[in-house]
Amino acid sequence: MKNIRDLPISKKRAIYSLLFPFFILVILWLVFFVSATLHLDLTSWGIFPRRLSGLKGILFAPFIHGSLKHLANNSLPLFFLMAGTIYFYRDLGYKVILYVWLMGGAWVWIAARPAYHIGASGVIYGLASFLFFSGILRKYVPLIAISLLVAFWYGSMIWGVFPLLEEISWESHLLGALAGFILAIVYRREGPQRPPASWELEEEVPGFNVSSTSTDHNTRFDYNYAHMQPEGIIFDLDGVITDTAAVHAKAWKKMFDDFLSSRQQKAGEDLREFSTGDYRQFVDGKPRYEGVASFLRSRNILIPYGDPSDPPEKETVCGLGNRKNLLFNTIVEKEGVKVYSSSAALIRSLHTEGIPLAVASSSKNCRTVLEKTGLLPFFGACIGGLISAEKQLKGKPEPDIFLYAASMLNASPAHSVVIEDAVSGVQAGKKGGFGLVIGVAREKNEAELMNAGADWIVRDLSEVTLSKIRARMG
Question: Does residue 397 have a cis peptide bond before it, meaning omega lies within 30 degrees of 0?
Fold first, then answer.
């Protein structure tokens, strides 16, 4: 049986959207059966307006129901409306559920009739109201469809906000619906948004433009593409999300310089110290052992390939690669991992918008480093060197790891994005047929990235937004 973590992001998203509503429903039914079995009257745990003892009902009233019919009538609407809110609005959905629960309950305590108010119907009305009005306010067709679906299935609920029956807490219904409406207005700029129409975007002078970190508001952007929602966005780790590229470069230099200085020169060998140019050309973005072999070939140095189990002190390609990894881990443990704040902000923004995200890196330390940053939960897939070895994926500039990451997101490469800072990574993105390849030129290497095939070059991810990605894709 597949582990949930191994499922495509679309299936994981559906499963996770059901877990919280299921948990709430289990609590509701447990409370009812325990109270019925033990003959407990929990009505006093409901909301009694303007009485201090009734304040606890703001939290507990939705868990309490007066009869089996009352609970049964509330169960399915509560489950599906909660699940829909979480599925379509992701992290915002949990916030909306919490605020509907608390706001509706607090307003009942302030304004309702002096009687005990119990049941989850206030939350149901609040979520139905949010889903209906949020889709309308966002003017986004998929969410408007959800609004219409809610109106179709729960439209008859409108009569519940009027004082027609004495035994029904119409105040909970009305005030819950009001809370949902207000939250739809307050959060209309958060979560999934309608893609910009072509007439809403500024005109562009023909030709390719390299973006700048300048705050010059006259900088133009190429919008001459069809506007589409990316099915997935795949980030490189080192140099894109984290500044571990500098740590890698430091570890590579230390390892190679020690090796070169201790080696007795043979005919044709070049033992000059390892340079920044060597790092970019022969090592950056490649699997560790391939990087070692590539650099040694450039210096006409021949040593045995060895085995991945070789100890760091052994002079083989694998031994040197393991030595570099030991140095890298030592530096990370000592100095920590630096995260680019603009990258973290973009990741959180894209996640909030519901865009499936993945990390694809040649580093075998990929997952460990990402865990240290606290950003791992935002990604539906994390493809590092260990998975590459297990799945026998070729390293960059071959597109294997990006294609595998896209498959884990259930995304088409042609409708997905790769964000890379390494020449080999940009080449891999283009070779894989990805719809948009963004090159991050932190080292002012715009020309190299452009020659490698980058569609859009930026100096920092603060220049990247979802609306610009949509406009660039075509």
Answer: yes
Burial annotation 3-41 (CB, 10 A radius, 16+ → b, else e): eeeebbbeebbeeebeebbeebbeebeebbeebeeeeee
User: pLDDT by residue (tens digit) across 361-386?
Assistant: 988 888 888 888 889 999 999 999 88
Q: What is the CATH number of domain 232-242+339-472?
A: 3.40.50.1000
Residue type present at position 426:
V
Helix (H, G, I), strand (E, B) or coil at 457: strand
- CATH code for residues 244-335: 1.10.150
Mean pLDDT confidence for 61-76: 95
Structure tokens at 45: 């745990």
Q: Rounded CA gap, 308 and 385, in Å?
A: 13
DSSP assignment of 314-366, as one string? S-SHHHHHHHHHHHHHHHHHHH---B-HHHHHHHHHHHHTT--EEEE-S-TTH
Each domain of the chain, given as residue ranges in start order, spans: 4-186, 232-242+339-472, 244-335
What positions carry a catalytic annotation?
236, 238
The dihedral over CA atoms of 265, 269, 271, 274, expressed in degrees to the nearest 10, equals -150
Its pTM stands at 0.52
Tell me, what DSSP letter sits at residue 463? Answer: G
CATH topology of domain 4-186: Rhomboid-like fold (1.20.1540)
